[in-house]
Amino acid sequence: MSLARDIMTISAVSAGVFFFLAGTAGLLRFPDTLTRLHALTKADNLGLGLVVLGLLPQAGSLREGLKLVSIWLLVLLAGATVSQLIARTARQGETAK
Amino acid sequence: MNIATIFEVVLAAVVLGLGIWTIAVRETYSATVGFVAYGLLVALIWVRLDAVDVALTEAAIGGGLGGVLLLGAAARLRDAEPTVAEAPGMVTRVSAAALSALTAAALAGAIVFLPDPAPTLAPTVVAHASATSLANPVTNVLMAFRAMDTMLEKVVLLLAIIGVWSLAPDNAWGGHPGPRHQADPDGILVFLARLLPPVGIVVAIYIFWTGANHPGGAFQGGAILASMWVLAIMAGLTDTPSIGRRWLRFVLVAGPGLFLLVGLGGLWFGTAFLAYPPALAKPLILGIEVAMILTIAATLGLLLAGAPERSVK
Q1: What ipTM describes this predicted complex?
Q2: Cα distance from A81 to chain B (closest Cα, Å)?
Q3: SS3 label, residue B308
Q4: H-helix or E-strand containing B12?
Q5: Residues on A contacting B at a C-beta cutoff of 8 Å
Q6: What are residue B176's DSSP bridge partners?
Q7: Are B172 and B310 in contact (CB under 8 A)?
Q8: Cα–Cα distance measured from residue B297 to residue B225, given in angstroms and rounded to the nearest whole number
Q9: In this predicted structure, what is the pLDDT of residue B212?
Q10: pLDDT at B103 over 60
Q11: Nearest CB to A85 within list B188, B196, B199
């Protein structure tokens, strides 16, 4: 039982790390603000989501699990808002030129 | 070398690198972003050192509210930056570098030549935890064993806000601090400012309440409350209160004031200044902390808002 949980943790966290790596590569390599934002939000949403999913089997209690999930939800909310704000500012900067 | 050690070495290297980059980089804005990232990573170091209370404070102040303060300063400096092109002279730079190196060497020496085992009061604190019926040793030290320091720290916060207010021009005295923020009422920022504060207030109260037995406390909770307030102000949902308001001044002195009253009560009825009667220790400490979380939230929010700029009319 604990082996199954460990396998799930390792595979989900590894997948999350992959998304973070891909997001970072995109942030460094993509040409403009909007595409870089696209790469970054994938890392935040999917990467952290998979890391949290992988940590859930290791949570000691239901309360700890709920805390982990709510951290992910809060980061989703903050990430979505900030990327919208940055994208709008970038768009306004383009039209102003 | 196990994986935790590798992680720690990498973390230390990144923090050092970020520190150097923050000092070396040209633009104020980039330096600010570097400093915020530096604050968040330093919080991770505190977690690795098992000092979660300090990590929470560092993340809230060094990474969060301090970052907002510096970003505001950088935005104001941006217009003036091209005119201040002349760099400080050679003598200034060399002496600043020498002083910094000397300070760093003295700190490094103090740490390297610490006696082994390092002198510590931690076992004493843990042994006397039952005196207050609070299980978090950090809260015990802050609120009971070294309560005097915490009280004076709150007085310092009060002095800081007086210092900021005293920068107000005469015609704005008693007015609203900072600019009146405007945002698109259907925009995403207003949406966040309506959605997040209920969650943030619950988290802040939880962090404050759990501080009795686990990492957390009034300062960390107060910082979260302040950030919710600042979010509502930045989204234009509410204005900063005019500094002449009676309730505002009452909230600002509530924390240190109640602390002082309880301290004098200890002197009057008990054995010493700030001596809590053992049976009442926990309710008294919690009461002081409730007043303190409000004071801290109001003070941090007003420190971010800055000096009064607009008169009441």
Answers
A1: 0.84
A2: 6
A3: strand
A4: helix B3-24
A5: 74, 77-78, 81, 84-85, 88
A6: B310
A7: yes
A8: 6
A9: 84
A10: yes
A11: B188
What pLDDT, on a 0 to 100 scale, did the predictor assign at position B158? 93
Q: How confident is the model at residue B134 (pLDDT cuts 50, 70, 90)?
A: confident
Top residue of B192, B206, B214 to mutate, by most chain A CBs within 10 Å, is B192
The residue to which tokens 């929010």 are assigned? B301
Q: Are B243 and B172 a contacting pair, CB within 8 Å?
A: no
Look up the domain containing A66 and give its range. 2-96
Give the other-Cβ count within 10 Å of A16's Cβ: 21
Contacts of B271 (CB under 8 A, 6+ apart): none
Helix (H, G, I), strand (E, B) or coil at B242: coil
Per-residue DSSP letters for chain A? -HHHHHHHHHHHHHHHHHHHHHHHHHHHH-SSHHHHHHHHHHIIIIIHHHHHHHHGGG-SSHHHHHHHHHHHHHHHHHHHHHHHHHHHHHHHHHHH-
Where along chain B do its domains lie? 1-86, 138-313
What predicted TM-score, i.e. pTM, was given to this entire model? 0.87
Contact A77 B196 (CB under 8 A): yes
pLDDT averaged over chain A? Answer: 88
Q: What would the pLDDT profile of B5-47 be if each residue is shown by its tens digit?
A: 999 999 999 999 999 999 888 888 889 999 999 999 999 999 9
Residue whose token pair is 């008294």: B284
pLDDT in the model for residue B83? 58
**Residue A1 C-alpha, separation from nearest chain B C-alpha, in angstroms:** 25
Q: Is B125 helix (H, G, I), strand (E, B) or coil?
A: helix
- pLDDT exceeds 80 at position B151: yes
Radius of gyration of chain B (CA): 22
What is the least distance, in Å, from the CA of A46 to any CA of chain B?
Answer: 21
* Residue bearing the bigger pLDDT, B79 or B287: B287
Model confidence band, residue B85 (pLDDT cutoffs 50, 70, 90): low
CB contact under 8 A, B195 and A74: no
The tens digit of pLDDT for each residue in A19-55 reads 999 888 988 888 888 888 888 888 878 899 999 999 9
- Say whether B192 and A81 touch across the interface (CB within 8 A): yes
- Exposed e or buried b per residue across B272-284, where buried means at least 16 C-beta atoms within 10 angstroms of its C-beta: ebbbbeeeebbeb
* Per-residue pLDDT at A97 exceeds 60: no
Q: Which residues of A touch B40 (CB under 8 A)?
A: none
